[in-house]
Amino acid sequence: MPSVNLNDRAIISISGPDAEHFLQNILTTDLDALKNGEAKAGALLAPQGKIMFDFLISRAGENALRIDCRADVADDFIRRLMLYRLRAKAEISKQEQPLVQVSWGDDSNASRDDSTTVRDTRFSAIEVFRNYGEAATGSDDIALWNGLRIAHGVAESGSDYALGDAFPHDVLLDQTDGVGFRKGCYIGQEVVSRMQHRGTARRRVLLVESDATLPDAGADISVNGRTVGTLGSVDGTHGLAIARIDRVKDAMDAGAPIEAGGVTLTLSIPAWARFTFPQAASGTEDS
Hints:
Number of helices: 5
Helix content: 10-25%
Radius of gyration: 19 Å
Shape: globular
Order of helices and strands: EEHEEEHEEEEHHEEEEHEE
Distance between the termini: 42 Å
Low-confidence stretches: 281-287
Mean pLDDT: 93
Number of strands: 15
């Protein structure tokens, strides 16, 4: 089965008697629903509701949680957590020289009962595991991992969007259980809940296909010269995009070509997602 070392990740450990309560009050993920052996998506938001840091979170023993995040922003993330910790009895530290390895497909990892191998719950059609062990036995070919993410519509910051530029709904955290809509308050919760209850989310992650090689990530996606989205991760003729689904639907209904860098695109919703293209374009601007 494929196994890839993710050398661009960092591990932040949060432990202590108040660790879970502290995180539950600031992160989007509902930790009450986090089971042993699971890694759930989540984010720390700005008060205005946009994503400051995205991550996967899992249990790492009694009174301990593990945050798996981008290595290049880990120190900033820790400083932000320290700012919110106040008097909570929680120790926050970054693991030195961590190994994050991802594997997928049929494997005996599915039956393992330890805290070092967890299932990435963002994937529903295939079993994907993240291992936080010692031996680096996987490949360093990150393109294999990116190809899997693209095929399953799983977006990540850096590759698909910039931190500070997206709401949780934009990157499907509402679809991957990365937002706890039944939990109490957390930072940015009011904005996210309003988008959920009013159904105002218009930017969404979409799958991209083309008959030609796609341009590089960051290329504008346009219809008749009007920008409707941005290309994210690319794997040959397949990729991810964050685009306005109302404007994409308008183009599809009108038979207008959707393009990026002169290449004609086909955009679709990931099969596992629960949202749909709007029946009629609202014409509203982004929230």
